[in-house]
Write a structure and sequence with these properties.
Length: 815
Amino acid sequence: MKINKFSLFILISFAFQIKISAQNPTDCSDAVIVCGNSNINLNVNGIGTQELGFGQNCSSQENNSVWLKVTPITDGTLGFTLKPSSSSINEDYDFFVFGPNADCNNLGLAIRCSTTNPSSSGATNNYTGMDGTASDTSEGPGANGNSFVSWLNVTAGDTYFIVIDRPIGNSAFNLEWTGTAEFSDPPTDASTTSSISKNIENCDVTLPYNDGFTAFNLEENTPLITGTQTDAIITYHDSESDAIIGVNPLSSPYTNTSNPQTVYARITNNSTGCFEISEFDLIVNTGPRFVEPSDYVLCDNLDDGNDKNGRITFTLSSKNGEILDGQDPNNFNLTYYESSADAESKTDPHPDSYYNTTAFNEVIFVRIEDKINPLCRSITSFNLIANPNPEAYNDTLLQCDEDGTADGFTNFNLTEAEANLTGNTPDRSVRFFTDNAKALEINGDAFLNSQNPQIIYVEVTNTLTGCFSFSELTLAVSTTNSNNAALALCDNDGVEDGLETFNLNDADNQVINGLPAGLNIFYYKTYDDALLETNELNSNYTNTVAYNQTIFARVENANNCYGISEVELTVAKLPEIDSDALLYYCLNTYPEYIELNAGIVNDSPNNYSYNWSTGETTYAINVNEVGVYNVTVTNSTGCSKTKTITVEASGIAEINDIKVEDVSNNNTITVSTSGEGIYEYRLIDSNNVVVVPYQSEFVFENVRPGVYNVSVKDAKNDCGVINEKVFVIGFPKFFTPNNDGFNDTWQVYGISSQNQPNSEITIYNRFGKLIKTLSPLENGWNGLFNGHKLPSDDYWFSIKLEDGRIFKDHFTLKY
């Protein structure tokens, strides 16, 4: 085939509709003419008018289609390969070929078509087309075929319509021509071989300026694009689609709709209808690039005799470098004007040395021109600001000569004068110099004068504008004095640490005693602070050195030092005594007395005075009543501390009742008491052996039968012990009358001549025969009946206690 270095790219995206308002290549009558064996790259979307009858033409119709028109100029074979942009096997393209020389109104049946679905047919790719290897002329739909049919044998001058349709998917496609037939050459874009750019750049010379829209003569590109071609016409379009279809041509002068804007030129061959698309940009030059200038700020000066009138001479060209931002200044003209209109019309430019006419703040407009094309200009503005210099006032500082040498030299804190030097105006800073040339700056916090008096030169600066003025500060040294003073407090704040809060104003009268009226007093922690008037103390001041500290009082006469005095702060210690106490008085010892004392620690009681709540004034007192007693102890400094002694009642217990639960598996004794004490309970058996030591519990459990003493003592104040005998009744489960000294007799425990002596005890054998009648006063039964030993066996008994209780049970006799 004939090879041409030409690629036609068409991107068409139309929504599906039956009627459309402009031509689209979705219909036969608007088919895209293919020339020069072009590679076609198209997007298929919409159908225009449905021109394929369903059931004909490989059993399909238009879904998303584009029409192509091809006319070979040589005999040969015509084929193509269609490749979707997406490689997905689900991307399905079909095609239909009509001709030769078919009429759009009478197309007939397709002479070639393929509607095979690549996914259904098991194909390895989604290509389709006509080639020399296929033998069939139609295939499909669905799984039928392999997507390729036989190519055409064509004759020069015959015309064919090729319909590309996409039933499934959304990608564009590329069409590669194969075979030996050739097409007419399309016209060429001669600008591609020229060194001249087709892009058109115009200055923005139409109102409103600087909006990026102006008029263009599109035809100035026509000779560049046409070149030597004589049978080509050029039309201009604002979209590629319009250029491809050949509709809505633009006319000059044409005003761009965006900046930059791409315009599409359609080059059409009058003879063949073949066309070429060329594009270029319309660019509106809105003027030279610049940086928005900052305000031009100067401080007023005395060049015009007044440094506070807001008028001064500005050098306007000093802003050129900032505005051009590194661009070569030789390529531009910069001029300055009173108004934007003057800058546009270049009327009455300001001189470079310009004395502002509007005081303090004036707007200046700058015209920035390209020297090569002066119509391309930019206009910007900035402010001329003439800041006034601040007011600066003269002042005097008078300091005390308190350094021990009355020579008229001492340290000054110059910053104390700042309020007067600046008129107490905010946003001001102050610098101090010893020379009138302001070259020798000094530290204002601590300056030792070298003359008395001495002049210090002051620079007052407005910190918002940087503008400054000068004044003078006179330093003078006074030799007057004030009185020392002393304040003392007892350490009464609840924490005996030697720190207390003083009201320093209490020292005022001592400090200025005998001095003239109208003096002011200020207090400082150190002498240097007082001298330099830094770190003034609040009137309520807590000393930082325990028990004794010296601070300093500065006496001033209208902010001038009159004298500096020492103020001694003393925190006196309180008496050291025992803490509050709790004592007990045994009520059963009344009217005996107990002693209470003030409890002096580490000192002689004779060094203090005492005041008891009873009215007594001795170190110790005797009392025999419960209650709360207070004693206030005062030392030689007059500081006092109060001790509280609480006397509570205690006493020996009174036993109200003792309840015995006996003849059980868990014999218990419960003691009920009353009294003022705190009581503990103990259990002792008849042999005076402690069975249960003293305990806070008043119940004894698991008590063996027998006779006991219950002891109750006062644990609160050891006021005494009370005892009472207790009997716990019970009987042994067996006895062994073998005269070995252990369990030789059987007797009920816990009854005796002192406890229920009239109780009756009877013993029976297993058949109910009475064997023995016992008295609680006897030693017990020895196992004999009428002088004979009874056999080992279980025997029954019955006990009728004197208190009326009756118990029956059995026990074992064994040898």
